[in-house]
């Protein structure tokens, strides 16, 4: 991998909470800071495309994401995305020629101690470097085919379907 393209769309991974009532907004993308602090041995650049909770990501946002990724030179692409509509977005990104695209996110904000954000990002970075061209989801320590996974809201985790 010569260079990793990272496109951020918001989601829990970037949420900032303001009070005990869980009032929040999607803040600055956290992934660049996290990768720098970890001292990764690859180049990357971040395109902060959206700052939305994934419940509010719509078809036009997904088409913008698809066009943005398709227009870049990098073959390895990591997308940070909220978990509620990650599967739907991954399905829209399928079929972009010559690219390995891995979507990941977090079930708790990256700023929180004990967040799964770092683990999921690490899993996604490994996946994007080793998988063939295609679109994948990296969550809960697994790599998922977007056509064979769903988010189980009650269990707060991703699981196989079919």
What are its keywords?
alpha/beta; Rossmann fold; six-stranded mixed sheet; 31% strand; 4 helices; single chain; 27% helix; 10 strands
What does this structure look like?
By secondary structure, this protein is α/β, with parallel strands linked by helices. It has one domain (3-160): Rossmann fold, CATH 3.40.50. The chain has helices spanning 31-38, 59-71, 86-93, 117-130; strands at 3-10, 15-17, 24-26, 43-52, 76-80, 100-104, 134-139, 142-144, 149-152, 157-160. Residues 4-160 form the L-asparaginase N-terminal domain. InterPro entries: Asp/glu_Ase-like_sf, Asparaginase/glutaminase-like, L-asparaginase_N, L-asparaginase_N_sf. One of its GO terms (molecular function) is asparaginase activity.
